[in-house]
Amino acid sequence: MIKNDYHHGNLKDDFLKIAFDFIAKEDVEKLTLKILSDATGTSRSAIYRHFSSKEELIETMIQKGFDDFDTFVSPSLKDKEKSLIDRFYLSAKAYLEFAKQNPNLYRLLFGNKYAKIRESAINIKDDDCSGFASLKLAIEEGQKSGILKKEDSFMRTILIWSSLHGLSSLVIDGFMDIDKMSDELCESMFADMLNNLVTNKVKFLSNMPFGDGILKPNR
Amino acid sequence: MIKNDYHHGNLKDDFLKIAFDFIAKEDVEKLTLKILSDATGTSRSAIYRHFSSKEELIETMIQKGFDDFDTFVSPSLKDKEKSLIDRFYLSAKAYLEFAKQNPNLYRLLFGNKYAKIRESAINIKDDDCSGFASLKLAIEEGQKSGILKKEDSFMRTILIWSSLHGLSSLVIDGFMDIDKMSDELCESMFADMLNNLVTNKVKFLSNMPFGDGILKPNR
DNA sequence: AATTTTATGTTAACATTGTTCACATAAAAC
DNA sequence: GTTTTATGTGAACAATGTTAACATAAAATT
């Protein structure tokens, strides 16, 4: 807190804050240690007193990033006051929204470049990945209550997640004109993703997205 | 062809070949110009007589990579001797297979790192992207013939592509245990992707993947 | 209170990377 | 046979991540 010219106070947090501010605007690939030292007014090697390498800084960012992601997406999925369908819909919307609002962070978390760092940062394989696990749990909950078909929940989880991840990636990586990605279009897609899960007994009164079928979320 | 000690013959092609050989095993991020000069036995600056920069080399690789991708995936989709459902199924399988066989190339083509280079290499936006366009055409063909629902073909195309891209990415980026990705599981997922497209009038006799419903491809 | 230890910051130097420039040599064009 | 063009070399640059030796302030110990 006390600013004397030598010791900085809480350099480590400052480095992280500046790094996150940076990837709010530019890709993490362009983040350089010089940017961090310049922004903090320290020397180029000061960061090595707080992180053993650039990779360790990235690893810390990944850990915090997954916390942020989870905080943004999970509550909608776990909100027991809403119907399961609503929860799926709202968390899917949150997922895409997180990616759109934080494209560089999303790529850092789910991209390949730091896959090894991610694997050491969090245990993401199979059921251990928090996002994956909670999605799978929600699907299994729906299967028990009879809302969803009693099929392979692992496969269903993968397919939902693939659709969300693929859509988010294609959007933020510039593969489709973002202007064409209207809310209505997204809702149609989310409806499609969910339509495969619900039991055969449910009749869809309309093919319109959330028109008047079961998939219309309460908003 | 004639090897004298100074002029190399066809260095440009050799550079490209070595680069593709490299990303067959390692990520394109690790490809360095020194690797190329060492492998060809030339000096470190020789490559600049054939590519104005490393980015231009990458751009050439992206162009050729998309050609390879198209050659691998498109024929199945355009094979008029097969049913439309079969064509969807087989090209989806080819898509995933290409990503699994060429993970580093797939990431180079569809990842974010070289997005700008890709955009200058090929016109990928909207209908101009060859893969996207041919998928959309196939969907519209199915809509005309009555096999597929007459809904927004753009949205349907995006969702199918998102599912394929997301699944491929998650698989090659280590988000799921590859051993759990059995052929049967993939087939179930492809079936799910397609189930949303087919007309309501079609009755599915089974929920089993390609069990005995319309979605069973001829193999 | 004085001393020692630990934490934190600085400066100088390194190897690696992509890149450029002046120069060298072979092939092609005239 | 001379000139022009294409292609390759070697030396040098700045930027990057990193390390080592040194410096200073805070904390711990006596």
Task: Give the topology, please.
Two copies of one chain form a homodimer.
Chain A (H helix, E strand, L loop, with lengths): L10 H13 L9 H8 L13 H25 L5 H18 L1 H8 L4 H7 L8 H16 L7 H20 L10 H13 L24
The structure holds a DNA duplex (30 and 30 nucleotides).
Task: Give a description of the structure.
The structure is a homodimer of 219-residue chains. Chain A has 9 helices and no strands. The longest helix of chain A has 25 residues, at 54-78. In chain A, helix 1 crosses helix 2 and helix 4 packs across helix 5. In chain A, 58% of the residues lie in helices and 0% in strands. With 219 residues, the first copy, chain A, is mostly helical. Chain A has 2 domains: 1-51, Arc Repressor Mutant, subunit A, CATH 1.10.10; 57-219, Orthogonal Bundle (Tetracycline Repressor, domain 2). Chain A binds a DNA duplex (30 and 30 nucleotides) through loops.
Please describe the structure with a list of short key phrases separated by commas or semicolons.
Tetracycline Repressor, domain 2; homodimer; about 220 residues; DNA-binding; 9 helices
Any idea how many domains of chain A? 2
Helix content of chain A: 55-70%
Helix-strand string of chain A:
HHHHHHHHH
Mean pLDDT of chain A: 84
Q: Beta-strand percentage of chain A? A: under 5%
Structural class of chain A: mainly alpha
In the predicted model, the low-confidence regions of chain A spanning at least 5 consecutive residues are 200-214
Intertermini distance of chain A: 46 Å
Summarize, please:
Two copies of one chain form a homodimer. Chain A is an all-alpha fold and 219 residues long. Chain A is built from nine helices and no strands.
